[in-house]
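User: As part of a screening pipeline, I want to sanity-check one entry by hand. Below is the sequence and the SMILES for flavin-adenine dinucleotide. Please return the complex as structure tokens so I can compare it with the automated output.
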Amino acid sequence: MRLILNKKHAPAQTQQAQAAMKSIVNMEPDFIVIGSGPAGCAVASRLSEDPRQQVLLLEAGPGQRKGVLGSNAALASLVYGLKSSAYNWGFNSLPDPGLNGRISYNPLGRGLGGGTSLNMLMYMRGNPLDYDGWAASGNPGWGWSDVLPYFKRSEDNQTFNTPDDPYHGQGGPVWVEELRTDNPWHATLRQACQEAGWPYNPDLNGATQDGFRPTQVMMKGGERHHAGQAYILPHLGTRPNLQLQCDSPVTRILFEGRRAVGVEVVQGGARRQIRARKEVVVSAGGLLSAKLLQLSGVGDGAVLQRLGIPTVAHLPAVGQHLQDHVDVILGHHIPGDPHLGGISPTGARSLWRAMRRWRQERRGMCTTNFAEVTGFMRLAPDAPMPEIQYEFVVVLAMDHGRKVYAKHGLSTHVLLLHPKAGAACKLPARAGRMRPPSTFATFRTPMTWPPWSLVCAACCRCTTHPL
Ligand SMILES: Cc1cc2nc3c(=O)[nH]c(=O)nc-3n(C[C@H](O)[C@H](O)[C@H](O)COP(=O)(O)OP(=O)(O)OC[C@H]3O[C@@H](n4cnc5c(N)ncnc54)[C@H](O)[C@@H]3O)c2cc1C
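Assistant: Here is the complex for your manual check:
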């Protein structure tokens, strides 16, 4: 595999790399995979296990980051502190009538690894009933019993590592380990959750989701292990049939009739077309896949016509019915605690010590994923599955860290997992290729609010010093 980056992110780009770029532009791969998030990385990697298949993986954002940006803590603060950057699309929603006109912030990973290069690293598969629901609504092959073998095959779990474990696998590309923060708050939160009547669950991806535990994370040796590291980079130089091109946003899927035959891509400021002999795989994330399809003429014909985009396939559901979890954050000021992030002389000293420890041992505060303890609960005892996820975050981070407090503290995230929302990915009136899509999400079930606020109150009881 060859890794090609553009000049902005690879200052020492060599003649060799430029020659490789030319060879890619002239190539006609069997498969073009759009987007190098976990979906695109897994698909490109698995397809290229067959050396007869030429696979080209195209990513809009930059490639691998090194040095301090490779640490979990540094990366997360980069993401949460900035509205948008080379590594974060950082979209805003339209004013949402269901949320009293609020505009929601939607951080989204950009670059090799996609969301896994900036997310909170929690190893969470979702609830088996989510998958069974998808299968029942007309998606054969997506039921829990269908997907579980693939989860096991993808995983190298360092905790659940017996060969006969019914839920977990070993030897796969995705390394999963326990947090290495050694944070005494884990014990405090464990006691608080148990006093609130919430059970400890040794495996949130096992027999049941209900309960809490310190988070299992997609890290290797205390460092972020994103999908590019898991699936793509290990094959650098060993699979000549797999090629990755970063800084290459696909602007359109090319069709002959209703058959996708290639892509239009921008590279080094120039627009190029690359044909695929077999298939084009769209794995640009939930929101941007919908945007790209619409820009390529796949969507609601009437809307596309208004925007001047020729319709390839009239599929009104494209970009509709998007689902995301909604997050309420409660902040708790806990003065001067060196085990919680915060801006103060104590915080600066702790951070300095933590950075030294991270460099030497890959342990301690710099290996945090921030959401160090997490769990699930049902709003009603007879609910078929948990509707709430709660996360205890070891820093006072409000509004995705866009509001900074010069205080030490803890944040409790209370996430509503299945809001009956009408989220949609709409193209803006002037459907420029690079313009952000517009999204909105309207609550259609106000009855979920009162029990949700009870959970927030219970989370507050778990901590002692409300902000
Ligand atoms: C802040 C944050 C925290 C999260 N925390 C967790 C967590 O702790 N645990 C968890 O399991 N999940 C978490 N998630 C969700 C998880 O990261 C996503 O579910 C996952 O990354 C989705 O994978 P994907 O491959 O479908 O899309 P993405 O990861 O979004 O990847 C899509 C890729 O396609 C690229 N792309 C888009 N358009 C184009 C184009 N036109 N041309 C070329 N490339 C393009 C993007 O740049 C991106 O790299 C979090 C997400 C965010 C944003």
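Points to compare against the pipeline: The domain at 180-217+325-418+437-467 is CATH 3.30.410.40 (Cholesterol Oxidase; domain 2). The two ends are 51 Å apart (CA to CA).
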